[in-house]
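fyi for ur records
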Amino acid sequence: MRRLAGLFLLSALAAQGAPPEATVGMRSRIEELVLPGTELVPAPAKPKDPIVVRVLAVRAHGSEFRYDLEWSGFEAGKYDLAKFLARKDGSSGPALPAIPVVVKSLLPKSVKEPGELLPVAPPELGGYRTQQIVVAVAWVVGLLAIFLVGRKRRKAAPIAAARPTLADRLRPIVEAVASGRAEDTAKAELERLLVTFWRHRLGLREQKAGDAIRAIRQHAEAGLLLRQLEAWLHMPSPPEKVDLQALLAPYRNVSAEDFSELAKPVEAT
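which gave:
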């Protein structure tokens, strides 16, 4: 009877001809789903998997288990979530019933590939960090004046303030996203900046958008911050303690000014 309850839910959805739907990149849930056999977990992910499945909750249901699942798709189409689950103990049976879902695209039918994102320059350095730089520069100038006036030393060359790096520009946005204070526009902007930077750095500008993002996610250095951003955005309970210094390390050798030039949209000729 317990197994029939889970199968009845799936067969009812199939009979109605309306499996659960979600648009590309959006999350959806299937709750109170009873499945036969030992406990299930998400199957090991592959780089080109079109579906990501997460097990939000598992509860005993007699000799079976009742699940709350969350899933999201990267490509439009019809899929079976059962193919993206595996036994926690490594066993192979019993076979799972089909769990049909549909991933829909919001793009017009005439558009075959997602449009290229236009890079947007990161926000200008400001706030408390700017105040610190101004105070430090003023202190240095005052100290030089004390030594130069009265000793009639040769006029010293002006000392330029250190150029802000891309890490300096990204830090306020990353901290806001990590603390949950960032708005959706800031989250999307951070993801846009990371993809733009690494597509230039890794020579992925000629690749399709989806293939480029997968390559960045799998890269040892480029994927650090992008994978952490996805965890903050999609995991029910993302890690609270994160080493921001390590996440921002790849961006300290790039000046924010140089990246602003890199991120300017290319004018049509």
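Strands lie at 21-23, 27-35, 40-42, 51-61, 64-73, 77-80, 85-87, 100-104. thats all i got for now
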